[in-house]
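Deliverable D2.4 — example input (structure tokens):
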């Protein structure tokens, strides 16, 4: 849906019957019979249909209100349909989760002007669990490794990932001189969650934290939440490698710390030993001096 948003295409009657799952788990949209470009629109319901109430028939309720009412629409209309049909498929127990119910409330806002768009929907905290493996890699030392056809290079908080099919850069959340997103802008005052509990506030903070990363694919600078499913898999592999490098780095650091600690202890012991020897010599000289004085008397 976000891809279609960028292309300014409206499916119009989005439903799971028109979605196919390929062998590689990629989702394919089919049946664009009612699809239109935002600039060249056609009405799905005539004035007669609207007058007779056909547009509000139960079987059409998944279609966005602006389409059913014969108004101009944008790709945000498909978000309404997505929210409607998704909610029908999800178990009631899951919907009791605050983040899930909040997500659907965003999708099903009747007014398209304030309804969530596909690009913002992707960064909603409901999807945080997809990125549990992501962490700040600023403390990892620069490295370069090759594994079969994959090359990974970390330099100055930027990862360069090269694969015959997937190549991208990943800028750490704390990288300096962050590049602006190419086709995404989130209003700083915009809240991802409307009704929040303590746990939901933490989830929202996590979502904003993820937004600090930058994925550069070709000429496009994207939030990592906007990467496609294929790139997401490569991202998981990448952070698995990073995790290994982080463990190695920590082992090296801990070893160096242990060596440094040992050196400090040895220096202290040596210093104390020298001090004891000096004190002993001073005492010995003092005793000898007193003995000589006694003999002279």
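Example output (designed residues):
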């Amino acid at each position: 849906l976000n891809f279609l948003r960028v292309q300014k295409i409206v499916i119009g009657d989005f439903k799971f019957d028109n979605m196919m799952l390929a062998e590689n788990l990629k989702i394919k949209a089919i049946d664009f019979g009612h699809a239109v470009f935002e600039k060249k629109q056609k009405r799905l319901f005539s004035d007669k249909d609207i007058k007779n109430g056909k547009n509000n028939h139960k079987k059409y309720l998944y279609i966005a209100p602006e389409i059913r009412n014969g108004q101009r629409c944008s790709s945000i209309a498909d978000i309404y349909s997505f929210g409607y049909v998704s909610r029908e498929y999800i178990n009631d127990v899951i919907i009791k989760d605050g983040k899930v119910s909040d997500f659907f409330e965003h999708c099903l806002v009747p007014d398209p002007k304030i309804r969530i768009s596909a690009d913002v929907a992707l960064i909603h905290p409901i999807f945080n669990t997809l990125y549990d493996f992501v962490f700040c890699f600023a403390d990892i030392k620069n490295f370069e490794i090759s594994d079969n056809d994959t090359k990974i290079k970390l330099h100055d908080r930027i990862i360069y990932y090269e694969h015959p099919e997937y190549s991208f850069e990943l800028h750490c959340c704390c990288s300096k001189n962050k590049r602006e997103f190419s086709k995404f802008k989130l209003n700083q005052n915009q809240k991802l969650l409307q009704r929040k509990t303590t746990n939901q506030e933490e989830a929202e903070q996590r979502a904003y934290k993820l937004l600090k990363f930058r994925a550069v694919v070709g000429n496009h600078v994207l939030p990592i939440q906007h990467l496609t499913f294929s790139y997401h898999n490569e991202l998981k592999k990448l952070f698995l490698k990073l995790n290994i490098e982080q463990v190695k780095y920590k082992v090296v650091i801990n070893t160096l710390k242990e060596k440094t600690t040992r050196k400090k202890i040895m220096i202290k012991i040596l210093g104390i030993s020298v001090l004891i020897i000096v004190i002993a010599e001073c005492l010995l000289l003092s005793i000898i001096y007193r003995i000589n004085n006694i003999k002279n008397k």
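The mean pLDDT is 82.
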